[in-house]
Write a structure and sequence with these properties.
two-stranded antiparallel ribbon, about 90 residues, globular, mainly beta, 6-stranded antiparallel barrel, Thrombin, subunit H
Length: about 90
Amino acid sequence: MAAIAGSKRTGNRVDDNRRSPRHGVEEPAHVSFNGVSLGCLVVNLSEEGAALEVEQAAYIPQRFRLVTSSGVRECRLVWIKQTRIGVMFEI
């Protein structure tokens, strides 16, 4: 199988070219917006963003706050794949 252009193949996985590596975590958190708070699970995390497991991805707005035990981050929704969403942290 050929590797995707611009990526490196390591074992059975294709490594993408993120600027900051993501680290696997399993941390309960909340997505907060307009007075609503929805539970979620942070599944991976980097300096620039995260992947979250949510029950109803369709209810997540384009911008929201991610509330974790380590603090609050302003986020922008980047992608949705079933019950997993990718977010970028706003500065």
